Amino acid sequence: MVIYRARVFDTPDNPFTGGRLRSAADIALVVDDGLITSRTDFDTARAEHPEAQVVDLRDGVLIPGLIDTHVHLPQVRAIGHLGRPLLDWLDQCALPEEAKLADPAYAKAVAGEFLTGLISAGTTSAMVFGSHFAGAMDAFFAAASASGLRITSGLVTSDRNLPDALLTDVERSTEESQALIDRWHGQGRLRYAVTPRFSFSAGPELLAAGGRLVEENPGIWVTSHLNENVDEISGVAQIHPEARDYLDTYDRAGLVGRRTVLAHNLHPQDRELARMAEAGSVVAHCPTSNSALASGFFPLRRHIESGVRVALGSDVGAGTGFNLLKEGVQSYFMQQLDPSGGVALTSAHLLHLATSAGAEALELDEVGVLSPGKRFDAVLVRPAEGQPLDVGIRHAADDEDALAKIFAMGTPADIAGVWVNGTPL
Ligand code: GUN
Ligand code: ZN
């Protein structure tokens, strides 16, 4: 039993439907074996649990563990290339790096660097876009399991338009994926996601093979990319003349449902939004990637009005790092700048997108806010004394303002503690 005494910010009430930031200046979270059993004032908690260890975190701000709904495992060494649009960036920057994960020792080293990147940024749960190599995925799942993070991931599949070393076929991808599902799905905090790279590199037969895996393995997830770049979208239309639109390439294969997370969706048709809302699928919004690749503005307002669920993703390595605070403020910037009319986001919206929206998106009901009944997945933001963020938090007008400063200025250097299920990482 541990009593965490802290200043706590979280978003149990969705700010997109009228909720406000919940903030407590000095509160006790009683945690028993990873579970938050009560949220009360410190004296009450102390009196009820005189034997409990007390951890005083009041020199920082405690927020829920951050949730990244789109981040690429094999791109940790490819972060930071500038100046290319998507298809060119894939050819020149991302795919040559991804091919290197054919080497098991290389893949193991990258898996370690990747998990360090997540934890350092305060990310405690993630939908991880995997590698094209089954051996690399096995090594990643093993490392992810040891890390304690809540990870959903899977073998990436493609059968065209990529370097030969990254291609597979229906039979091989089905066999390798099923073996990984049998070995890892449901083990501890791990889950499996069928992961066709995108319909630009996967034909109808390969996509349908993914759909069969979903049908035969109830509870597994699906992740891919959707409507990111205009050249990509016209390529997809050529490869899939049978499909009504980009989303339909996945839908015809049985890949569009509640456990489907599709990254980007910058250029959707109204029909696609309506269908995603009907199916309950999720869009992973990745604003630094969209900016770096000049892919476009994310039509957040249309997603909200259509009832499509949205959460935040870093999209490392087109995205510029693992820091979801940076993704939050970049989303704010782009909504401000969108010539077609963005949504005016507050700091509470940003925290929701980075925490509770991600938990809902990934059906991680046990995390996302710091309430009784939830698991203690948490991040302590505590900048070094005298740094601009420290000064900013101290002089903030109110808690929303302090939270805005955390998004505007926060980096991994300001993350002083990360817990998953009550265990410090
Ligand atoms: N579409 C297909 N693959 C990728 C990728 O690795 N990054 C991004 N941003 N989009 C993609
Ligand atoms: Zn991506």
TrEMBL record:
Cited Pfam families: Amidohydro_1
InterPro entries: Amidohydro-rel, Guanine_deaminase, Metal-dep_hydrolase_composite, Metal_Hydrolase, Metallo-dep_hydrolases
Broadest EC class assigned to this enzyme: hydrolase
Keyword check for Nucleotide-binding: no
EC number(s) given by UniProt: 3.5.4.3
Catalytic activity: guanine + H2O + H(+) = xanthine + NH4(+)
Signal peptide: none
Keyword hit for Transcription regulation: no
Cofactor: record remark: Binds 1 zinc ion per subunit.
Superkingdom of origin organism: Bacteria
Cofactors (names): Zn(2+)
Pathway stated in the Swiss-Prot or TrEMBL entry: Purine metabolism; guanine degradation; xanthine from guanine: step 1/1
Keywords: Hydrolase, Metal-binding, Zinc
All copies of domain Amidohydrolase-related, residue ranges: 61-423
Function description: Catalyzes the hydrolytic deamination of guanine, producing xanthine and ammonia.
Family classification: Belongs to the metallo-dependent hydrolases superfamily. ATZ/TRZ family.
Descriptive protein name: Guanine deaminase
